[in-house]
Amino acid sequence: MNKVCAIFGGSRGIGRSVAQLLAQKGYRLAIIARNLEVAKAAAGDLGGDHLAFRCDVAKEHDVQNTFEEMEKNLGRVNFLVNAAGINRDSLLVRTKTEDMISQLHTNLLGSMLTCKAALRTMIQQQGGSIVNVGSITGLKGNSGQTVYCASKGGLVGFSRALAKEVARKKIRVNVVAPGFIHTDMTKDLNEEHLKKNIPLQRFGEPVEVAHAVVFLLESSYITGHVLVVDGGLQLVM
Known about the structure:
The chain has eight helices and seven strands, in the order βαβαβαβαβααβααβ. It is α/β, with parallel strands linked by helices. The relative contact order is 0.15. The mean pLDDT is 94. Residues 3-183 form the Ketoreductase domain.
């Protein structure tokens, strides 16, 4: 089986670190982001014959077209990483409906759509591996992130159910749930305040999560699992 991996959200943060590790392992990669130029820059930094694609994961037409283009230019996708995500942190009573919808569409519906598109090929090949990037907040909850937590918690339920649906086709589906990681999404957080609730007293780095993603992506006997990658975060704030 050719090692072709599509990484949605692969132009920055955790997704970009995953791409770097997989490139070193000889995978052919599709780096997918909303901004094509940023995706091209990330793919170019990897060297080799990796390609970049533009896609809004919340739009089914975009997702379908992207998979068609990937198959045409890279071959059948047998590995999928969903690392695209957004947050609009706010107390629920202050959260605009459009911000609720955008988070649910990107963080949850988007992963559903990419998984659905990838499964068509994976079922034909009788094999494949999917890793969805969630969040520890989707397991424990966090004040000021109700909608984000809902989207990531939903991703866990979706992934576990999908793992049961496709296991007989030798397709594995897992989730990595990071704690607070140094990415664009956490740059505005009060890190010193949050460290008080982290026994290891530090934020994680994207590459630390990326190693967990790659482990689950390549493991042949783990499916329906949620791997938490954090420093003992308590989320008592």
